[in-house]
Amino acid sequence: MSALPPYADLLGLTLERDVSGAPIMAMPFNDGVLGRPGFLHGGAIAGLLEVAAIAALRHALAAEGEATIKPITVTIDYMRGGRDKTTRAAGVVTRLGTRIANVEATAWQDDRDRPIAAARMNYLLTRA
Amino acid sequence: MKGFDVKRFAALLQAGHGGRLGIVYHDHDGTAPEPWVELALPYAADQVGDPVRGVIASGPIVTLMDMATSMAVWAKRGRFAPHATLDLRIDYLRAATPGRTVIGRGECYRLTRSVAFVRGQAHDGDPADPIAHVAGTFMLLDAAA
Questions:
Q1: Structural domains for chain B
Q2: Which end of chain A, N or C, is less surrounded by CB atoms within 10 Å?
């Protein structure tokens, strides 16, 4: 697992782990991620989902050696407004191919079963 | 003349996430059949998502395009009214060149009673060589039920 990129610091993200050791990204609410008054900016939620997806992908790749990861498509669905509280996100690698990885990520606040947003990402991999 | 002042609204964006990323007004046409708004995202080292290549993360580009397409909706409606992003898809045609300002152009090509349909492109100097295409929808929160 590489160190988090500068953009993760901009968002104020911290890395947590679930019981299996898989990465979870946590984003505190602050003025720097605010959209319309009282709500998270959709772009900040997208950024959190992206960092979580790449963390899940690096976690999955760790056993196979490093690879460069480039986004091809990112599709984000917004289900609920992000309120004034910490948001967490985690990614699941649905397929890890030689050149393409498919990753799904969800973001939630109080209840992981009530996501505020979800994303599907396709990444181009260049294996070392 | 439409009642939504794009330049004046963009000047108010210093607060919040867009301001944190340094997003500013670039250009617009609010009276075109498909009104469009262009915003600019200056390159910043703290937005890098790929430290090896120096490429900015996709999150700032999503933010740029969410804001440019949102403002295109308000330009088309002729006023500001709250809406929520329902979905946004971004296709990355190539990586943004490190050091270059990214220009995001958003258009609203269809407006119904409750949904705005938007699309846009992002480039880093040459509109004919875009870095990303986006398509999205917004739910209009002031629409009649």
A1: 6-140 (3.10.129.10)
A2: C
